[in-house]
Design a protein that fits this description.
By secondary structure, the chain is an alpha+beta fold. The strands form three sheets. The protein has a six-stranded antiparallel β-sheet with strand order 6-11-1-2-3-12. A hairpin with a 2-residue loop joins strand 1 and strand 2. The longest helix is centred in the N-terminal third of the chain and has 10 residues.
Length: 236
C-alpha cells in the first residue's frame, strides 16, 4: 500500500488529515491514543486511562527534503488511577527525562527497521493495532537510557497543590503501602474523544498560577515551570 493510501485509510478509521489544500506529505494526520496505567494493589488491579491527541507537522531542516522530520505536540490530560485508602495516583504528560514524552511515546514503541525512511516508520506507527506495552526504559543513542514511564505524582490533599509528592515508579509501596506496584503502562491507537474532566478532581488547576506557589513548595526535582501543562494541555 502506498503511503498516501495508508494515510487516507487511517483517516477513514479516525485519524484526521489536516483540512488544507496541501498534500498529506506536508500535513501528516493527527492521531489519538489511549494511555493506560495499571497498578497492582492489595485490593486487586486498579486502572486509569486518558485519551491524548497528537498533532503532527512536517519540518525540514534547511529546507531539504532529505532532512525531513515529524514534529509533534500533544493535548489531553494526565491519567488518574484511584487507589485504596482514597488516594489517587497521577501519570503526568511528561516523563522524568522529557517534557515532550506524551507527544512521542507512541512513536517510541512503534516497530522500526534500521535505515528505514522516516515515511515508512511513520506508516508503521499509524498502523499499530492493539495495546503496546511501554517499557520501563528506552535506550538512548547516547548516554544510556531514559525513562519510558510518565512522571508519577500524588497528593496527600487533593485540594492543596503544595501537598504534591513524587512517586517512584519502581517503589509505589513506600507511598501507597505494601503490595502496591505498577503492573504495566500501555498505549493504543483509538478514535475515542480526548479525555477531559481533570479539573473536577483538581479544582485549583485552572488558577494554579494565581496561588503564589514557588519552587520551594514542591519536592526537589519536580518540574514546576509548566505546572498546569503537566496535568492538562491544549493546542494554543
Amino acid at each position: 500500500m502506498s503511503r498516501m493510501r495508508t494515510w487516507v485509510g487511517m483517516a477513514i478509521v479516525g485519524a484526521m488529515l489536516a483540512s488544507t489544500g496541501c498534500s498529506s506529505n506536508e500535513h501528516p494526520p493527527t492521531y489519538r491514543y489511549r494511555l493506560t496505567v495499571e497498578v497492582d494493589t492489595p485490593e486487586g488491579l486498579k486502572t486509569g486511562s486518558s485519551v491524548i491527541e497528537v498533532e503532527q507537522r512536517l519540518g525540514r531542516a534547511g529546507g531539504s527534503p532529505a532532512h525531513s522530520a515529524i514534529r509533534r505536540r500533544a493535548r489531553g490530560e494526565a491519567v488518574a488511577i484511584e487507589l485504596p485508602g482514597d488516594r489517587t495516583l497521577f501519570a503526568l504528560l511528561r516523563s522524568e527525562d522529557s517534557a515532550d514524552w506524551a507527544a512521542y511515546v507512541v512513536q517510541a514503541v512503534s516497530p522500526t527497521i534500521r535505515g528505514e525512511p522516516w515515511e515508512e516508520q511513520f506508516d508503521n506507527m499509524l498502523q499499530l493495532r492493539g495495546e503496546r506495552i511501554v517499557p520501563r526504559y528506552f535506550k538512548r543513542m547516547v548516554r544510556g537510557r531514559s525513562s519510558g514511564y510518565p512522571l508519577l505524582v500524588t497528593f496527600t490533599d487533593l485540594d492543596e497543590p503544595s501537598s504534591l509528592q513524587l512517586v517512584d515508579p519502581d517503589d509505589l509501596a513506600t507511598t501507597f503501602g505494601e503490595d502496591t506496584s505498577i503492573s504495566r503502562v500501555t498505549v493504543q491507537m483509538t478514535e475515542d474523544p480526548v479525555t477531559t474532566g481533570i479539573e473536577q478532581r483538581l479544582r485549583w488547576l485552572p488558577k494554579v498560577y494565581e496561588l503564589g506557589l514557588v519552587k520551594e513548595d514542591f519536592p526537589d526535582g519536580f518540574p514546576v515551570g509548566d505546572f498546569k501543562g503537566l496535568f492538562e494541555r491544549d493546542f494554543d
